[in-house]
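User: Quick sanity check before I run a bigger batch. Here is a single chain. Can you write out its predicted 3D structure?
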Amino acid sequence: MKIYVFGSLKPDCNNCRAAEKLVEEVIAPWGAEVDYQKVTINSAEAKQYGVMVTPSIVVNGKLITHGAVPDAAQLRSVLEAERARR
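Assistant: Done. Predicted structure follows.
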């Protein structure tokens, strides 16, 4: 499973840090099953997925949050659904 968390270049973006922390906590038990990357809003990946606001999360090529931090249950649900497709 491939997960991108898009964050701001500003180190004081609390929502970006919260999204990163949430993803890291939720995926921790899955280990090597997950390819997780933190990327910035001005990256090639952001352009590829149409990300224009932070924080945003892309899972297996699908934009699941855009400009918001999901709650843990919502994120787990999305990840479990993606995991089941494999």
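The chain has a mean pLDDT of 93.

User: Great, the batch can go ahead then.
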